[in-house]
Amino acid sequence: MQQPSVAFEKDVATLGSFSLVPFDLDCDVRVIHPWVNMEYASFWMLGNSSEADVRAEYTKILSTGHTEVLMGYHKDKPVFLVEVYDPGHEEIGTHIDPAAGDYGMHVLVGPPDEHIPNFTSGVFYLIMSFLFEARQAKRVFVEPDIGNAKIHKLNRRFGFRVLQERVQLANKTAQLELCLREDFERCSKVLGF
Q: Are 136 and 100 spatial neighbours (Cβ–Cβ below 8 Å)?
């Protein structure tokens, strides 16, 4: 399915074409509803949700004016969701010294139809490229649940460093991490992106 309003696109080494498209409540809630209910998506905190619950959650997120939600496409198929937010307007902002050019992000990769080596790394590379190239990010913050070992490993691979090992947020105990462009670019080169 070809998407009309592409926010960012890039060819990723060995994986092909990826693009980011603004989230469409009418179409994309149906796509992500099964994803957020998968066991591996438990850190997304929407397990056992109905499609109406997911719509209400994304209506709320989009209404803040501080979060951009995008669907990620690989070869014209929706395969991941990313939320890009201003950390100065979120709870995490109380744990940092917010500045212009700060971004935070959350990513959820949909269940694969087939195993593609390094696919999740390619998704992560695309998102970080979008933040540093298209949004001119100075710093990118993430606050994954301390129990989410897979995302901690992926964050390290792309240059994130731990600022605080335990940060108590309203809905989770998180680890606060930061990535700078030079660290991302260095790590991406080592990874072959």
A: no
**pLDDT band per the 50, 70, 90 thresholds, residue 120:** very high
Residue 15's CB: how many other CB atoms inside 10 A?
19
Dump strand ranges (E) for the chain. 8-12, 16-22, 67-74, 77-85, 102-109, 139-142, 161-169, 172-180
DSSP alpha helices (H): ranges in 17-118? 25-36, 51-63
Contact of 185 with 192, CB cutoff 8 Å: no
Global pTM? Answer: 0.94
Whether the pLDDT of residue 2 is over 70: the answer is no
The two tokens of residue 93 are 């902002």
Fold of the domain built from segment(s) 8-191:
Aminopeptidase (3.40.630)
Is 184 exposed, middle or buried, given 0-12, 13-18 or 19+ CB atoms closer than 10 A? buried
5 burial type by CB count under 10 A (0-12 exposed, 13-18 middle, 19+ buried): exposed
Residue 107 has a CB neighbour count (10 Å cut-off) of: 20
